Amino acid sequence: MLHSQHSGQEEKMGTEKSRKVFKNNSNPKVISLTMDQKILALAAEENTDQLQACLQKLKENELTDLVTKQALRGKEMGAFLRGVFKGSSCSQQSGVLRRLAVYKHCVHLVESGDLHVEVASETIRLLMLEAHQLPGPALADMATLFVEAIKGGSLLSGKSLELFPTILTALATLKESLVYGEGELSGEEFKKQLINTLCSSRWDHQYVIHLTSMFRDIPLSAEELQFVVEKVFRMFSKVDLQEIPPLVYQLLLLSTKGSKKNILEGIINFFSQMDKKQKEEQRSSESMDLEEATVPLDQLRHVEGTVVLHIVLAINLDQDLGKELIKYLKSEQQADPGKALCPFSITILLSVARIHRFEEQVFDFLKTSVMRSFKDHQFLQGSKFLQELAPLQYNISAMIIEVVANSVFGWDHVIRGLVDLGFILMDSYGPKKALGGKIMETNHGVPKTPAQQACKLGADVLLEAFKVHEPIRSEILEQVLNRVITNAGSPISHFIDVLSNIIVSAPLVLQNSSSKVTEAFDHLSFLPLDTVQGLLKAIQPLLKISMSMRDSLILVLRKSMFSGQLDARKSAVAGFLLLLKNFKILGSLTTSQCSQAIGASQIQVDVHARYNSAANEAFCLEILGSLRRCLSQQADVRLMLYEGFYDVLRRNSQLSNSILEMLLSQIKRYYESEPNLLPPLKLEGCILAQRDQIFLQEPLAHLLCCIQHCLAWYKNTLTLRQQTEEEEEEGDSDAGLQQNLSDMLESITRRMIKSELEDFELDKSADFSQSTGVGLKNNIYAILVMGICEVLIEYNFSTGDFSKSKFEDVLGLFKCHTNLCDILKEKAGKSRPPSANKTARSFLSMGFVSTLLTSLFRDCSQRHEESLAVLRSSNEFMRYAVSAALQKVQQLEETGQTDGPDGQNQEKVFQNLCKITRVLLWRYTSIPTAAEESGKKEKGKSISLLCLEGLLRIFNTTQHLYPAKIPQFLQALDTNEEAEEADINVTEKAAFQIRQFQRSLVNQISNAEDDFNGKEALLLVNIIATLSKLLDPSSQQFVQLLSWTVKICKETSLEDAPCCRGLLGLLFSLHALIKSPVGVLRELARDIHAHFADIDQDLEMVHQSHFAIVNSKTAAPACLLVLGQAEKVLEEVDWLISKMKSLLGSEAAEDASQAADQMQSLEKATVLQLGTLLTAYHELVQTALPAGSCIDLLLRSVSKVYAALSSLVKYNLQACRSTTGGIPKRMEKLVRLSGSHLTPQCYAFITYVQNIQSETLSFAAEKKKKKTDKMPAEVSTVMAKVLRETKPIPNLIYAIEQYEKFLIHLSKKSKVNLMQYMKLSTSRDFRINVTTLESALQDQDAEDAENEPDNGQSIASAQATDSQEPKKKRRRKK
In what helix (H) or strand (E) does residue 23 lie, and over which residues does it extend? Predict the structure, then answer.
């Protein structure tokens, strides 16, 4: 209204001016020059006739000149145009032409850029208002003008495009037909044709944004909108990168009209391609030293960040757009995850997660995608068949980590989502508490399962986000600490690992967040010991740089030391020991001398700490004073102290005097100083009696073990100490302590050897029962004495310097240890639970075990020969040494570390492991088992067998814990060569070791039946299987191993079932990495069929054996293995069918031909797999298998076959709907094969199974008649077993019927009668066995003939009997 009033005032002023001109000037030339004023005056007077007459006098070029003149003046342009339009009636052709000329000229003026912005806007507004007055042809002319201008690129500013939507809208509402070419079109069709032409033509890149914005104002059908969107995306590559964000913004506004999915898909695909292009350019520039990239990385990332913000804003305003995004990504994830998931789409999702409504959906989708990626990767890893058909082309871990790296380019909107995702993955897939409350920690070793990999990904995301984003650091730290403290009952090792990595990455940065760590200290006394140890170890670098944090921790630990809770006191000891290890006193040996690896941040801190060595010394002595109190506490607390002292000495050598003094005063409490008194130790002081219960008070063996290791350390470092300038008094003091302790150990050794078991009150007549106080006391004594013997064995061997007398002492101690061990085993008997019969953990350190084994088996020195002969003469001692090594390896496998010195030093443990392996390998390969066993038979396993067990465990442990060190490990086994790590060929080295075990296995198999050792053969097979994982599947060595395995299985007839299972398992695992094993399964199924005979007893089997390993004794386990492997093949088939279903929709994409080729190869492979598998099942369902697990597993397995067939038929149904072609010929052949070779045999097999079960029941019934007393329990057991075995039958019948149902649907859809290949199914409601019925009727007739003269009655009674069973069935109520 205001605008129209203002325009009216302008018109009146213009009219007054024109009147003045007319009055004052009578010159006609002046009048002609001021025609524009005349037009304005006539328009103001509403004199339409004169206005029309005036305008008709003007030529087109004169009128356009006037328009130009007014436009340039600008003041009266609106009034002038309104006047022209008033005088140009659309009912007259001349008026229409005049209007059209004005429209065209105004468009030209606006595009020229000569007009003022306000004048141009007013002009366009007027033209838009009058557009609906134009007749159809004029509108068509104007629309065509715009289209031609866009096609020709003649637009200059693009301002006039605001008029185009109005023209097209007016066209669409026209009721009259328009001439187009030789025909006529309605207004709507004409508009559609124009849009089609426009989108098919070339656009100038600078007008793409204007054109996209223009389409928002045009009413578009869904088809037209899609056409427009596709055109805009085709222009993306031609538009400057900086113009992409505003263009995306316009597209998102356009999405309110529809085509949301296409717009989102186009944006994601464009940036996905840009990222790929950027990576390729980066790779090529690194390799070829090219100049800078086409698109600078930082520019691309900033553009992506802006686009993501636009998308999030649009989703905030339009929730449907967010739903469409998640729906699109979910559908693409099912079809082709590599296409939907890219760093850009993950960035969008994580940014959208800030919107509360979509948060749960986004994270659920990302969790599912991560797990699917890892599961698919794991699934494909075990099958060469799948790797070749459908390789995995995306890595979601790398994508998410890339998003973290990209987020440094100002992507603040994605940081919150990244952190939340990291914690969600760690919370969801971290280690869980097992049934029974035991925490299953799986933090050592490389993550293998998909859940472990997902948890590791979450940890990596948090760590990388912490490194690159300062604002989020305190929150990440707080959340990690909260989880460590609040989830005390659950496994939290993964969070402690993250905390440790965070602190190591930036200890100085975390000083600002020290208050959060200090708050966590207050909860230490309430946390489990493992959590406390892990937490303190993680924060240790912070303690060195923050004195306040250290002081806070000491206060908490002191309080805990006096806590009533045992765990709190143990936590205090753990904390104090950690502090002692890490606060060095000046003069201590360097970390390199102590063989301790330490991080860069810690080294930096150590330099800082040396300037405070005096303070550190006072600090450490104060802590030792606190720890001295622990020597009077419970055994568990003392035990922790003894196990920790060695590490403290190793890291802080200046504390040796104090520690040795503490240990000396402690051992003196239990040491008999009288040199000839037996026994040398007071065991009664080591136990505590409370009422009827006996407790261990002093772990004396651990105390002696600690003394022995500290002494060994002292002697080894004595040379280094002498080199340092130390005060003589201190040196003398240390030496005196060392001498006292050494003398004590010598005296204890001498007297322990002289002591009899009676001296400890532990002879064979003693009570060792767990139910009495005396028995418990004797058990504790026995365990203490055995531990002391082991400690002294290590001490005397280590200090003996290959002295014959020392080694005789070692044997004497071992004899004492063995006698006690035998008594305990004998007394335990069968009354103790199996868990109690486990061997007590050995006190020998891993380093000593490796040294002992090397000396016993590999030391060829003449100087040592006489003394070592003493130990070698005892086979029991050598077996004991190998058993100790086995125990250490088992502990390493289960916990990732071992007891004793350097048990947590991974490098030392690895070196000891290599030494042990070398010895065990030499011992097994050098001395044949047969030679060893030919001598006197001894109880327990032979040394060779123990060596094999150890080797198997070591090979498994090395692959699990030290995958990166496998080249070094294999090199260490080969003592002949020295090579650089880079030159080591793992496949060749592993193949060399495998060949040794192959020879041993062949020798074992070649032995006579009496000499065959099944346990040894099975261990050899398992070792070969473990080492085969180190071979490259594409190598010649791998193929040779597979050929050898096939040959062994085909030519060797073994009757040992476990060994047969091991060989067949090896065959399948190797075969799967080369090609699918279905052919082998078929041959094995034929062999199994031949050995068990046919279910039709009259049928005589004619068979040529394929695999000699399958015989009458091994056929049943072989059958179970074959069925297990067949189910793996079925899983692969199911995966392939799912893949094919997902690819069905992608055939219309740009790479349609490639998708079609892939589909064809997948279909062919799937049908071939199922076809070959059907022939294997064809053999098995005709086999007279024994009742039990074989039948049960076969019935379940055949049900899965039919489920897979049904899935394939359903896929073909979908394919028939989406394409015009029929079903492939190979599919038809598969259906025919299932109808002829499987379904009839399945029904026959069901009958066979039911006959077996009826015989079982009748046999049980007969027993019931004979033995009435034991009857109920036995019969009920048999009945339960029969019911259990018949359970899979209904499921199988249902699966067959479902398959046939889908076949009927497919037959109708494809117009191919597939049911012609399927025979009529047997009715399962009831069966009439004709032969049985006839004989029963004959018997009935004979009885009736004797007893009843009336034959008619007998027939009636027979009919009544026959019809009795069906009457019991009732129809289910609906």
Answer: helix 2-24
Res 708 pLDDT > 50: yes
Cα-Cα-Cα-Cα torsion 648, 649, 653, 659, nearest 10 degrees, comes to: 100
How many of the other CB atoms lie within 10 Å of CB of 798? 19
Written in H, E and C, the secondary structure of 1090-1122 is HHHCECCCCCCCCCCCCCCCCCCCCHHHHHHHH
pLDDT the model gives residue 18: 40
What is the mean predicted confidence (pLDDT) over 503-529? 80
- The H-or-E segment that residue 19 falls in is helix 2-24
β-strand partners of 184: 179
Can you state the angle between helices 117-131 and 163-172, rounded to 10 degrees?
Answer: 0
Strand partners, 689: 694
**Helix/strand/coil (H/E/C) assignment for every residue in 785-815:** HHHHHHHHHHHHHHHHCCCHHHHHHHHHHHH
CB 299: neighbour CB atoms within 10 A?
Answer: 13
Contact (CB, 8 A) for 1038 and 1031: yes
Residue of higher predicted confidence among 1152 and 1173: 1173
Is the pLDDT at 611 greater than 60, yes or no?
Answer: no
Give the pTM: 0.80
**Tokens read off for 1185:** 């298998």
Question: Chain centroid to CA 112: how far?
Answer: 62
Q: Which two tokens stand for residue 340?
A: 């939907």
Q: What is the DSSP letter of 681?
A: B
Neighbours of 1043 (CB within 10 A): 11
Q: Both tokens of residue 597?
A: 């690896």
Do residues 417 and 349 make contact, with C-beta atoms less than 8 angstroms apart?
yes
**Six-digit token string for 1177:** 């099942």
Q: Which residue, 183, 170, 175, is CA-closest to 141?
A: 170
Residue 47, both tokens: 């004199």
Cα(393)–Cα(221) distance, rounded to whole angstroms? Answer: 37
Beta-strand relationship, 693-696 and 687-690:
antiparallel
The residue-averaged pLDDT of 227-234 equals: 81
- 18, 3 in Cβ contact below 8 A? no
Q: Does 282 have pLDDT greater than 80?
A: no
What does the alpha-carbon distance between residue 643 and residue 577 come to, in Å, rounded to a whole number? 10
| Phi, psi of 694, rounded to the nearest 5 degrees | -115, 130
Q: Which tokens in the block code for residue 1290?
A: 């209904």
Which range has the worst mean pLDDT, 87-101, 643-657, 869-883, 1260-1274? Answer: 1260-1274
Residue type, 15: T
**1361 CB-near residues (< 8 Å, 6+ apart):** none
Q: What mean pLDDT is reported for the chain?
A: 77
| Stronger pLDDT, 1082 or 164, i.e. the higher one | 1082
Does pLDDT of 536 surpass 80? Answer: yes
Identify which of 539, 560, 760 has the alpha carbon closest to the alpha carbon of residue 640: 560
Closest by CA to 398, choosing from 354, 358, 457, is: 457
Top mean-pLDDT range of 46-50, 305-309, 1286-1290: 305-309
Q: Rg for the chain (alpha carbons), in Å?
A: 45
Residue 132's φ and ψ, nearest 5 degrees, are -70, -10
CA–CA dist 858, 947 (Å, integer): 14
- Per-residue DSSP letters for 999-1039? HHHHHHHHS-TTT--HHHHHHHHHHHHHHHTTS-TTSHHHH
3-state secondary structure of 693: strand
Query: ω into residue 431 within 30 of 0, thus cis?
Result: no
Kindly report the backbone phi and psi dihedral angles of residue 753, in degrees, each rounded to the nearest multiple of 5, phi listed first.
-70, -35
pLDDT, tens digit, 9 for 90 and up, residues 64-105 = 666 666 666 666 666 666 666 665 666 666 666 766 677 776
Q: Which of 1051, 1046, 1043 is nearest to 1108 (CA)?
A: 1051
Q: Which segments within 281-384 are labelled E, that is strand?
A: none
CA gap 776, 767 in Å, rounded: 9
Q: Tokens standing for 446? A: 């490389």
Residue 695 bridge partners (DSSP): 688
